[in-house]
Structures are given as C-alpha cells and as structure tokens.
Amino acid sequence: MKKHIGIFVATTLIAAVLLVANILIYEQPELQATKQTFIYALPTMYLFFFGFTVAILVALIITGKKSKEQIGYVFLFLTATKMGLSYLFARPILNKVVDDPTEKINFLVVFILFLAIEAYYTARLLNNK
Predict the structure, then answer these.
(1) Which ranges does the record mark as transmembrane (predicted)?
(2) Which domain holds residue 33?
C-alpha cells in the first residue's frame, strides 16, 4: 500500500482544488442566489464522490495485488454501483421543480470529474502489469 500513497495524496489534492474552484465560481455575485437554492452543499457533494473514489481505488489496488486480470471488471462493477447510488443521491436534485438547471449540471460535472480520476488511475494500474 505504501507505493500507492501517492495516488491518494494526488486524489485528495485534486479534489480539494476542484472544490475550492467550484466554491469560488459560486461566490460570483450573479451565482450566489443560485447556490442558496442547492439541495446539497458543495462540500457534501464532493465528500460523497471523494469517498466513493477512494473506496474504488482501494478496491482496485487490492484486486491488482490478487489478480491483475480482474481490475477492469472490478472497475466496471464498482463504477456501475457508484452510478446507481449517485442516482439515488441525486433524486432530490432531479425532482426539484426549478427552471434553473445549475445544480443538475454541477452534479453531473462533479460526477464526471471524479469518474475521470478513477479511470486515469485504473488505466495506470492496468498498465503496471
């Protein structure tokens, strides 16, 4: 696990930078009112996805030590699970009756950013055969 500490440090730094950037975007005067209508606070959403990303990376590292051939399958299964649970998490956002889709778009962008992080490190683990 020691040689994989860098993955978790980098993931934490990336998540922190993205969170700060996202918060700064919504501190703009024209977007502050929009942020007040969000169902989930930005740190809550980032913590949700960060937790999943860390759990998926840990599972992939453990799988890679036992059976490198299974890393891709584990990634697909865990990503599908994450998508299902993200849908459940996002249902209040999706059901919100507001003309402004900002929170929906923000949720999708954050989901995709963390998915990209997971896919990048999965590819690195697969290429270390």
Answers:
(1) 7-26, 38-62, 74-93, 105-123
(2) 2-127
Contacts of 100 (CB under 8 A, 6+ apart): 34, 37
* The pair of three-digit structure tokens given for residue 39, joined into one six-digit string: 């169902």
Read off the pTM. 0.89
3-state secondary structure (DSSP) of residue 119? helix
Count of structural domains, the chain: 1
Q: What is the pLDDT of residues 75-115, one digit of tens each?
A: 999 999 999 999 999 999 888 877 778 889 999 999 999 99
Backbone angles phi, psi at 37, to 5 degrees: -90, -5
Q: Please write down the long-range contacts of 45-49, taking CB distance under 8 Å and 24 or more positions apart.
A: 45/106, 45/107, 45/110, 46/15, 46/18, 46/19, 46/22, 46/110, 48/86, 48/89, 49/15, 49/86, 49/110, 49/111, 49/114
Question: Residue 118: phi, psi to the nearest 5?
Answer: -60, -45
Scored b (16 or more CB within 10 A) or e, 62-97 reads ebbeeeeeebeebbeebbeebeeebeebbeebeeee
